[in-house]
């Protein structure tokens, strides 16, 4: 383990994490517990944006939207009546109008909603169509101007690996790379920074955790959750490892549950910090838990996903799939963040 990496103790961090979760109360209106937008869903992938968006609702957001392509829209709607689905994106192969016209239309549709979101999750099942990614780059830039938090996952990481300037310097971004995505990001950033060939070679090695803080520093703002057997989380200042619970099943889609969950915690943590409530006694319990809301949200999301995966595994063992994890989010939330505390 890296020297300055803090291994979090559950009993010490739980009071602080519980403090950011809003109370349930009849005096709160719809939307106050969170509105999340997921940008993803294309010809190939409809499961990933669904997992991310439905997880956001089950963690406790009031509204969860998906922005996807036409073809994916009907499919995602059929998975769940809970999601608000906007089939506004277009891939090159299905485009019948000029690119500029389509881009303007996508942006004008997106602008109707953008201000309302507490967080945008960009990338689960987005695909890699170049035109679609150009549209998403524009959306990211508008979201940044409005200071909307971003969780970047899946093909969103492919996009920002090719164009890191989209998120470098933006502290309201959380990047959630898996091992492959992390290696690609390290290679790109070391290349840009002119780090020596020897260092770049390190990016191919297994010691990814030790590169994490350096990577986060190079990106100068975003918090990075490097997913794996343990999740390592860094904003370039602190590095935490989250090795709570988890399961030995590696079915696809667990990262999508994580991204949607972090999206909700990000909105909650930001509101909590903005109100200055992190200065209170509860939040001092674990001094080492960061004062950066993005890090707090990442730690909470990782803890929850790993708890839900562990619970699902107890019931389903080898047949456990991501739908089983989604079903366990409610129980896991209640075990970690009981209503009424
Ligand atoms: N149901 C759905 O709709 C889902 C859709 N999804 C969406 O798919 C899109 C692409 O995402 P991705 O994760 O498949 O792409 P990427 O990271 O390039 O991995 C590709 C290959 O790399 C390998 N590999 C992966 N992890 C590794 C590891 N830890 N250690 C070592 N190797 C590892 C492994 O290769 P293999 O073992 O097959 O050779 C893997 O197959 C993205 O939009 C995402 O959101 C998913 O969310 C799942 C559910
Ligand atoms: N070897 C492991 N042991 C225990 N938990 C793991 C392991 N690998 C990943 N996880 C958990 O699963 C989560 C998702 O990580 P994973 O590497 O599967 O992401 P991903 O490839 O992006 O997933 P997805 O299939 O959704 O795209 C991590 O946050 C981590 O908590
Ligand atoms: Mg993924």
From TrEMBL:
Residues given in the record as (6S)-NADPHX binding sites: 125, 178-184, 256
Ranges where the YjeF C-terminal domain occurs = 13-336
Query: Which UniProt key words apply to this protein?
Result: ATP-binding, Lyase, NAD, NADP, Nucleotide-binding, Phosphoprotein
Q: Which cofactor does it need?
A: Mg(2+)
A biological-process GO annotation? nicotinamide nucleotide metabolic process
Binding-site list for ATP: 227-231, 246-255
- Reported function: Catalyzes the dehydration of the S-form of NAD(P)HX at the expense of ATP, which is converted to ADP. Together with NAD(P)HX epimerase, which catalyzes the epimerization of the S- and R-forms, the enzyme allows the repair of both epimers of NAD(P)HX, a damaged form of NAD(P)H that is a result of enzymatic or heat-dependent hydration.
- Protein name, per record: ATP-dependent (S)-NAD(P)H-hydrate dehydratase
Organism of origin is Ceratopteris richardii
Taxonomy of the source species: Eukaryota, Viridiplantae, Streptophyta, Embryophyta, Tracheophyta
